[in-house]
Automatic annotation (TrEMBL):
It comes from Actinacidiphila paucisporea. Keywords: Cytoplasm, DNA damage, DNA repair, Endonuclease, Hydrolase, Magnesium, Metal-binding, Nuclease. It is found in: Cytoplasm. Its main location: cytoplasm. One of its GO terms (biological process) is DNA repair. The lineage of its organism: Bacteria, Bacillati, Actinomycetota, Actinomycetes, Kitasatosporales. This is Endonuclease V. Belongs to the endonuclease V family. The gene is nfi. The record marks 89 as: Interaction with target DNA. Pfam families: Endonuclease_5. It is an enzyme of class 3 (hydrolase).
Length: 235
DNA sequence: GCGACAG
DNA sequence: ATCTTGTCGC
C-alpha cells in the first residue's frame, strides 16, 4: 500500500523515551481529522485489520495486517512481519510499542485498503491520541479502534441486544466513543474514532465486521495469524 | 500521596 | 500482551 502521501508528512523521529513520545503524541493529535464523516460501510471495498503478538520470553514479536473484502468478509491479503520490541508497554503510549511493526506489515501489502481497524482506542484516550489516532495520521487512511476492555472513561448501561450502545463520555461531557454490543448477551466492545471517520460510521463498520463473534473479523484474523507465526518461530 | 491504567 | 484446566454450550 502507499504509505507515503499524507503519511510521510506526519512522520518524524520515532521516540525512544517517554518524554519524546509524549511530545510526538501531542503533535500527531494535532494532525488528526476528527470532523470528516469518512466512509460509510457501503463506500468501503477493502478493510484492513492489524494486531501484534509478543513472545512470553524475550523481545520477539509478530505483526499482522489482514485485508478483507468489506462486503463478503473474505480474506483478500495477509502480511506478516517478524520483529523485536523497541518500546516498553506504558498505559497511554501503546502506539509507540505497536506501530513500528504494524506500519512495516502495512507496507508489505500490495493492495491499498480504504479503511483501517485496530485493537485499542482512538480519541477515547487520556490525551485524545490513542493507537487509532496515530495509525490514521501516519497512514492518512480512515481509522478507528475497537478495544476489548475499559480504559479511562465510564458509560451507562448497555442494552443486551446486538447493536445497542452507550456513549463513552469524558469529564467535560464530551462524547469520545461508544460502548457497543456486537453480540447479544456478550460483553460489549469499546469503539472510538482515530482519523477521518465518524463515530457512527465506525460503529456501523464494527457491527458489519462482527456478524458472528464479539470482535471484528479484522482483529480476530490478525490476532490468529500473528500468534500462529509467533509460535512457529518461538519453538 | 496512592492507585488505576488499551495491548 | 502472556500464563493457564476444566467446563458449558452450539
Amino acid at each position: 500500500m502507499d504509505t507515503h502521501g499524507s503519511g510521510s508528512r506526519a512522520r518524524a523521529a520515532w521516540p525512544r523515551s517517554v518524554d519524546e513520545a509524549l511530545a510526538e503524541q501531542e503533535r500527531m493529535r494535532g494532525l488528526a481529522d476528527l470532523t470528516s464523516p469518512g466512509p460509510a460501510p457501503g463506500n468501503v471495498r477493502l478493510v484492513a485489520g492489524v494486531d501484534v503478538s509478543y513472545a512470553r520470553q524475550g523481545d520477539a514479536l509478530v505483526a499482522a495486517a489482514v485485508v478483507l473484502d468489506a462486503t463478503t468478509l473474505e480474506t483478500v491479503e495477509v502480511a506478516l512481519v517478524e520483529g523485536t520490541v523497541t518500546f516498553p508497554y506504558v498505559p497511554g503510549l501503546l502506539a509507540f510499542r505497536e506501530l513500528p511493526p504494524v506500519m512495516a506489515a502495512l507496507e508489505k501489502l500490495t493492495c491499498g485498503p480504504d479503511l483501517l481497524v485496530c485493537d485499542g482506542y482512538g480519541v477515547a484516550h487520556p490525551r485524545r491520541a490513542g493507537l487509532a489516532v496515530q495509525l490514521g495520521v501516519l497512514t492518512g487512511l480512515p481509522c478507528f479502534g475497537v478495544a476489548k476492555t475499559p480504559f479511562v472513561f465510564g458509560h451507562q448501561e448497555v442494552g443486551e441486544e446486538r447493536g445497542y450502545g452507550a456513549a463513552l463520555t469524558s469529564d467535560d461531557d464530551e462524547v469520545v466513543g461508544r460502548v457497543l454490543r456486537t453480540q447479544p448477551g456478550v460483553k460489549p466492545v469499546f469503539v472510538s474514532v482515530g482519523h477521518a471517520i465518524s463515530l457512527d460510521h465506525a460503529c456501523a463498520h464494527t457491527l458489519r465486521l462482527a456478524p458472528r463473534y464479539r470482535l471484528p473479523e479484522t482483529t480476530r484474523r490478525a490476532d490468529h495469524l500473528s500468534r500462529e507465526r509467533l509460535r512457529a518461530i518461538t519453538l
